[in-house]
Amino acid sequence: MIEGIPNGRPARHENRFERRALLWLPFAFVGGRMLRAAPIHGGDGGGPIASGAAAQAATAGALTPLTRDELGEKWRALVKELAPLPKEADESYAAQLAGLIARTPIDALPKLDPLKARRAKGVMGGPSWFVMPCVTVEFRMDPGAVLRPHNHPPQVVVTLCAEGEASYRHFEIEGDAPPCTRIDGSTFEIRETRAGILKPGRTTALTRARDGIHGFVAGPEGARLVDFTVGLTADMETFSYVEVSDEPSDPARRIFEASWLGKER
Question: Model pTM?
Answer without folding.
Answer: 0.78
